[in-house]
């Protein structure tokens, strides 16, 4: 029987490269991970496809999902809703896949509150100056939006200490391997192996009776 997968939430400042890290991780370890797709009311960026990067829905559709309790979490960010559909995540975990949610800090902390076994990981560039450079280099947003994202990043930084891991994305390949190692090492945590521990203890108890 396959062990249950681990739920990991990866957050990071907009422009930290977390999306690129997730794509590389999925390409390299496709059999290990499942990347949860968030629903959002924001407009698609050039090249984004419905059902691949996000489920793009209307505000009315999203609010219906909230009412039907079809989301693990949801939050508003820069005037748009973002949320994690529940069913897909739990099906993948039961099938032994490690599921990664790429969501922002409000949602991450809500997931950890509901599901304490969740691993929280925060991705950051090496410096604030590098973050600004990466946002400007994307060329997908105007100056006002970039300023809004940088302001938001300062607010988000106040909650980073609530995460389990803080990962610097400087060299992409090294960062991908670090993220992979962290999640796989989590499988060895004692509290995730309680059933096996109990089995071994029971066997040892039987041995002790024979002395």
Any overview of this molecule?
- The chain is an alpha/beta fold.
- The chain has a domain at 7-36 and 99-209: 3-Layer(aba) Sandwich (Rossmann fold), CATH 3.40.50.300.
- It is 45% helix and 20% strand.
- It has helices at residues 18-28, 59-67, 86-94, 105-114, 128-138, 143-157, 172-186, 194-209; strands spanning 7-12, 33-35, 38-40, 54-56, 71-77, 80-85, 98-102, 119-124, 165-168.
- It has a five-stranded parallel beta sheet with strand order 2-7-1-8-9, sandwiched between helices. A four-stranded mixed beta sheet has the order 4-3-6-5.
- Strand 5 and strand 6 (80-85) form a beta hairpin.
- Helix 1 crosses helix 7.
- The longest helix has 16 residues, at 194-209.
- The radius of gyration is 19 Å and the shape is globular.
| Sheet with the most strands: spatial strand order | 2-7-1-8-9
The CATH C-level name of the domain at 7-36 and 99-209 is Alpha Beta
Superfamily (CATH H level) name of the domain at 7-36 and 99-209: P-loop containing nucleotide triphosphate hydrolases
SSE class? alpha/beta
Largest sheet: 5 strands, parallel
- In DSSP terms (H or I, runs of 4 or more residues), the helix count works out at 8
Average predicted local confidence, pLDDT: 89
Strand content: 15-25%
- Cα(first) to Cα(last) distance is 33 Å
The count of β-strands is: 9
CATH third-level topology of the domain at 7-36 and 99-209? Rossmann fold
Spatial extent as radius of gyration: 19 Å
Helix content: 40-55%
What would CATH call the architecture of the domain at 7-36 and 99-209? 3-Layer(aba) Sandwich
